[in-house]
Amino acid sequence: MPHIDYDLFAAARQEMIDEGFNPDFPPDVSQQVNTLKAGASGRGCARFASFVLVIHR
What we know:
The protein is mainly alpha-helical. The chain is built from 3 helices and no strands. The model has no long low-confidence stretch (mean pLDDT about 80).
């Protein structure tokens, strides 16, 4: 069987674009996530800070 190079990440990203979604986070999202992580105290907060989800359409 021949080896075919297929970029699943690129294909999924393109599919999102084709369906009208913007798969790229705005520049300030990383800053906001880092602020949340830095300000998280205690086990519970740190656990939930890693599950920040931002969806843009």
